[in-house]
Request: fold
Amino acid sequence: MKSFFKSELFGDLTKLVQITFDQASEKQKQLFSESLTDQLFDWDTPQYGLTFSELIGTYRLTVLASVIGNDAGTPLRSHDGADTFAGEIPRIGHKYPMTANKMRELLQMLETTRIADKAKTQKLIDTMFANVAEAIKGVKDRYDFITLKALSNGGVVTFDENTNPDGRSFSIDYKMPADNKRYVAAIWNQANINTADPFEDLSKIVNDFKGKVDFGAMMMDNSVLLMLAKFKTVKQAIYGTDKLNTPLMLDYLNEQFQRYGLPPIVVINKRNDVLVNGKRTVVNPWNSNILTFVPKGKLGVVKTAFEDNQIMPEENVTYSNYDRGNIVVAQWRTGESGDKQAAELTQASSRGIPVFTAIDGIVNLNVSATSA
Reply:
């Protein structure tokens, strides 16, 4: 049996993946492009060669790693446990299988005479795009993970056995200035609900950076927002003394905050699923103790390199380039000849890294501590 993706009957359907990427209809933009990294970064045109050495020489970042190179099996470390990573940009990717059982269902559907040909074709397209969408979303989620970790962790991102269990371990330090790592005057917690003054904490940052940074948003975990809306000083500034028991809604809070010269609040609710020892584990990429001020406009650029399969494509694999080739979708078949389970695979992969060019304008406020 020929591959679903390469057969004479269905081969043209895979062309729809590239056509959809090229047309970028509003529906498909929602399907593929809903990511924080897309909103906050520009995507550079892929290069043939791109290493951390080049980025470190051009941008302000340091990459510390335990493993360099795709084929390195032994960690390379200095005596203090960290060595500057100078190898190629790590590869981001995963694949989704369509098993033989699913294939049987599709073939059974094709053979029935009760379903119109148009409906059969649409079912095949829907099946194919479900895997394509999931694969691309997984790649974009990894870029979002890097972005959110850096924004809420002093510009540092760490990949370890918990956040990248089937890949290499390394850390990226985007070199956030020390003065941009701030602390509250009094911890934002229930014990200080009547005494802490979040307005003072937030206004101080805006005033300290006035003339240097035009802040566009305050990013925070939902738990921080809920606590912020409870403080007596906040309610009193907005409602006066006669409505202290009235709940504060986000829209109204933002409206009032902007009257005081504060940027609007953006709540970060992103969660990622990571497979650790075969078990799905939910990971929060955002540090819930940190409130982050970000400047208006783009925060940087995603630097990418061409994937290996763009340089040396394989036979019997259908390739589609998403967003100028920054993400590559590959579709192919596995089976007995390769000593693998029979399946039709959909893979999305990318070789890139977000680079913050506006790191000097990003400020972390630790709401759980008054000093380092």
Q: What stands out?
A: The first strand starts at residue 41 and ends at 43.
